[in-house]
Amino acid sequence: MAALSWIAQLLQFDRDGDDFCIREPRRGAAERLFGGLIAAQSLGAAGATVDDGKLPQSLHAYFVRGGRYDAEVEFHVDRIRDGRAFATRHVTASQNGAVILEMMASFHEPEPGLDWSPEITPALEFDAAVPKVDVMDFGDKFDLRTMPTDHTEFAISPFWIRTQDEIEDDPLIRACTLTFLSDLGPVPAALPPTVPLRSDLGFAASLDHSIWFHRPFRPHGWHRYELRSANHNDSRGLARGSLYDTAGTLVASVSQEALWRI
Description:
Keywords: Hydrolase. By secondary structure, the chain is mainly beta. The chain has a single domain, classed as Acyl-CoA thioesterase, double hotdog domain (Porin, Beta Barrel), CATH 2.40.160.210. The protein contains 4 helices and 13 strands. Helix 2 runs antiparallel to helix 3. The mean pLDDT is 94.
């Protein structure tokens, strides 16, 4: 058998009915769990309870408290509804008895219909982007091309991204990969455009995260991720994002609110 991809390995749960458990990998000196990881695993647990014909449609997650690496996380899935076309799941992720994430996820059986998305002029053309390495939070799993002016340790939008390795041709695993990478970028983008990003700027954390899965996602193909600041007040910043393939087709829409104590 072929070796599992890194994301598929992160979705290898111990399962007892609708309860799932996994031990998070050790990540060197990192202490706080990457939000994209726990969101991807929550979607994976939810999807494991849904008929194969229904694909991820959207998710809405709240990061209740920070988790840690090298420890077990338990995922409990509640089957809210199973309809002919849609299925709805609620996932609670806990670590050491404390809730760290709550998620609602919806799944939809593909239907024929109109297919339209607006034509958008790229905020960063692929040929104008430059390779970037040493990005925080599992950046070693991806190839990134960012603006030439981006010298930070973060991924600053707009940027181009793809997985370094091929990912299994499985719609749920690929949706989990998209969920994972969608958390690279929103926190910096939640700052007002007038505030320069610095590593010592203040305390930042993701508060909630939403994704709408519009079209099939090919993780090893290049995608352009554009995020923009939509609001900032009360120490909270809202970022809205869009993920496009190389043809300019909208693959997914993202929204995240982040805490910024500056």
